Amino acid sequence: MLSIRPDSFSSYQPSSLGGLGLETVDARVTISRSHYDDFAQPTPWRNFELVVGEKSFFVNPGWLAELSSFFQDYCFSAETAGNALIVDDIAPTEMLEFLRCIFFCPTRKPLTVANIALVLRVSRRFEMKPVLARCELFIANSANTLDRRKLLQVIFYHWKEYTDDLF
């Protein structure tokens, strides 16, 4: 977070925001920028690679296993233990949005009307029961305020996936 104070000795000048339409920043305004990780770089603890299209995302396999029975088996079972997974049925931009919604790196992106269908779909794909529960809670808490058309799309998709599993 960047606080702008008129008595500051910093070298910050409002003109450094040129091109953003913020040239006339009031000295009492606080400018903050949220940051979500891009998962593009491996670290000692984020060493599991999800290859999605031409992009690679590096995540913590332990956290994936905590959220997903699929990843428990894939990452830690003696028969299938692997350090990478190729995902060919999800677009890279969708995977990035999904990862930002499920991991605190450094903050977790909130569920919204814009991303709820995606998070539901991918969490079902990877058997992420805690994430599905979060999605269901979001829908239940937002049912009265969501756009009706979007709500019906989400409910229909979720119901279709649920009934496909039954038959």
Automatic annotation (TrEMBL):
Please give the InterPro entries that the UniProt record associates with this protein.
Answer: BTB/POZ_dom, SKP1/BTB/POZ_sf
Q: Which SUPFAM superfamilies match?
A: POZ domain (SSF54695)
Gene3D superfamilies xref list: Potassium Channel Kv1.1, Chain A
SMART domains on file = BTB
One Pfam family from the record: BTB
Q: Which residues form the BTB domain?
A: 46-143
Q: What is this protein called?
A: BTB domain-containing protein
Which organism is this protein's natural source? Diploscapter pachys
